[in-house]
Design brief:
Blueprint (H helix, E strand, L loop, with lengths): L2 H10 L10 H8 L3 E5 L4 E3 L8 E7 L2 E7 L2 E8 L4 E2 L2 H4 L7 E4 L3 E7 H9 L2 H13 L24 H4 L14 E2 L5 H11 L3 E6 L2 E7 H9 L19 E2 L5 H11 L3 E5 L8 E6 H8 L3 H10 L3 H20 L4 H27 L6 E6 L15 E5 L4 H25 L16 E3 H13 L15 E6 L1 H15 L3 H12 L23 E2 H19 L8 H11 L4 H25 L5 E2 L6 H24 L7
Parallel strand pairs: 9-10, 12-13, 16-17
Antiparallel strand pairs: 1-8, 2-7, 3-6, 3-8, 4-5, 4-7, 10-11, 13-14, 15-16, 15-18, 19-20
Helix pairs in contact: 1-2, 4-9, 11-12, 11-13, 12-13, 12-14, 13-14, 15-16, 17-18, 18-19, 18-20, 18-21, 19-20, 20-21
Amino acid sequence: MNTIAEHIADFLKEYPPFNHLTFQELSEIATSIRVVNLEKHKVLFQINDVLHDSFYVVASGVINLSVIADAEETLLNKCHEGDIFGLRPFFAKNNYMMTAKAREESIIYAIPIATFRPFVANNSEVLNFLLESFATNTRNPKDKENLNGKLISDNVFYSDQQSEMQYFQSLSYNNSPLITTKNTIVQDVAQLMTETLMNNIIVCDNTIPVGIVTDTDMRSKIATGRFPITISVDKIMSSPVITVLENVSLAEAQLLMLKHNVTHLCVTQDGTNQSSIKGIISERDLIVAQASNPGVLIKEIKRSQAPKDLKQIRERLSDLIQNSIHKNIPLSHVNNIASEINMAIIKRSVELSILDLGSPPARFAWLSIGSQGRKEQLLLTDQDSILIFEDVTPDKYRDVKDYFLKLGKKTTATLEKVGYELCPNGHMGSNMLWCKSLTDWTKQYNSWMNTPGENSNDLSSIFFDYEIAFGEQKIEEAIGNIVFKNAQNNTLFFDFLGNDALKKNSPLSFFKKFIVEEEGPNKDKFDIKTRALMPLIDGARLFILNFNVKGINNTYLRFKQLAITDAKNAEIYLNCAEAFLTLSKFRALEGLKNDNSGQFINLNELSKIDKEKLKNAFAPMKELEELIKSKFQLTQFS
């Protein structure tokens, strides 16, 4: 091996994922690596450039990764020595979504993907590292504390976020494949494939797959006359077969097919070619999987004509959420995807109601409030909404309101059929209390915010978490202006919200034991929503309103923004942001497992490690509580 290649191999072995490879493997890779010298401000690739045939490692210097957002260049990350970037060619076909530019004079190692791909396909740790890093846009997903060698994602989740998640979802496959033995005559195999309309058949020794015959084999080997139709099938089969476990992702399957130049993968019990066959994955299955990505789901929602159509799509979303969590896709990203699909379902439900009732007599806005208003509704929790219609003359008011009440009832009924239960507190656009004109809503918010004590019975904090699902954007903006105008210097309002945020029951006893439900259907279970998530949700809302930050409804993003706005308390906010994601994941997994809202956790089913992880997520809540007490004058409603 030449000296330069040896030097490169020595360098790479210190950084993930290369530390999972042997020095011999690294040496083989290093011989094909190209060394790139970049002068200061030199661009390596930029947005919309055609993908390169290599990905990159920073040997020295600094590379800035940036995107264009709102006509401005936004710096996403800085890549230092040992950092990897430019992974997009591994997993995606479209052009680069960011620009890589040298911040200072830098040396970059360009690693050919064709050379590296076999090592990825054969090493699960390397593959998982790349998959998760492509999705997370963070440093090493396995070791967030290790600053040595972070891996920067090319997967910027802006306009293309819906199309990207498909690469990480599990694949459906044919679990009833055609099977034959090595001694079967080709003519009989061809007859069987024709009768069953199958384009492949697996050749097995007992139940162990030893080869595969496809339509291509029949055309290229039999139809051309190279082999007679009377020979045994083992003479024309492709062998050995490429095998995988059943939970293989689309990205993994693509890599394996590309590496081995095959069109089919055999699914076996343990993923090896020494265990029993379970099924077959074809190129067509990859195409079908790509057709099930979030962007396609939204298109199907727009074409839906009945609640049952929307219900089927929502069930597919649940599968997508479960697979994404299983593949370690960041929960913040999963929330974004789920929110867009949920919003599309709500919007289509309103549209179907309008198609049934006729055109609305006035402009209006349907606002989702609560968890969906915060873009946090991963599970089929209850629906919360308000309906605001523009002001009309007094003589038209009754008829206009009657129309919108009917619209509200039809829409909430549709959403109930989809699987979203009716709000037990009646916080829905079908309720005459929450279906009214902009002027009436203005009075409502003025009353809530300026005399909160007099309106405490019907004042729910979820009315301050809203997102337009359908209708006039200007109506939503008008509500936002009312809220933030009333919030300015409103000590009484923040006194009320602050006390309300601190009223939630503690998650742990004095002796650090989980406080569980003492009676009822959820006896001995832990209420993660009320005791853990709501204090964080309420705290984030309280501070975001107090600092007059508009346009951010999501709890995680609120804490991230607060860390910038109130820098001296940044550590508290960032800890709360991470705690919120951890707790949300616990709830999501519980809900997906039991097909419910996930509100009540069965602690007996958690491992000791998970229980400790859950308790650790409670720690920032105490810091947030102390910050609320020190920031606000909590006297009037204490």
